[in-house]
Amino acid sequence: MVALHVVLGVAVIAVCVAGALLGFVAYRKHAGAPGFVSHGLVLAQTLLIAQAALGLLLLSDGRRAPDKLHYTYGALALGLALTPWFYAPRVGQRRLLWFSLTTLVAGALAVRAFMTGS
Prior knowledge:
The model has no long low-confidence stretch (mean pLDDT 93). Helix 1 packs antiparallel against helix 5 and helix 2 packs parallel to helix 5. Helix content is 81%, strand content 0%. It has one domain. It is elongated and about 45 Å long. It is mostly helical.
């Protein structure tokens, strides 16, 4: 299960960066959020949730990360990716910008969590 956690961590980082870049391009083109852009951002959030759930399963099995900061960075990444649902404007380009920015920063926090977990 640890190997799956590592593979999922790499996928989280890649999808967060790709989704954020797609969101920034759509924002700059004033194209709104086409289906593949919004699906990319939602996929990043879904992978973050799955990563946290798998991490909790590992923790319940007695497997701990070598550095306690791993848990902090992981929780911050998940929390940050979910904040636009509460604080972003309801409609418009700024909503897309909120989701793109938080997804990019969540990806950066995932990189840091990955570095402290191995």
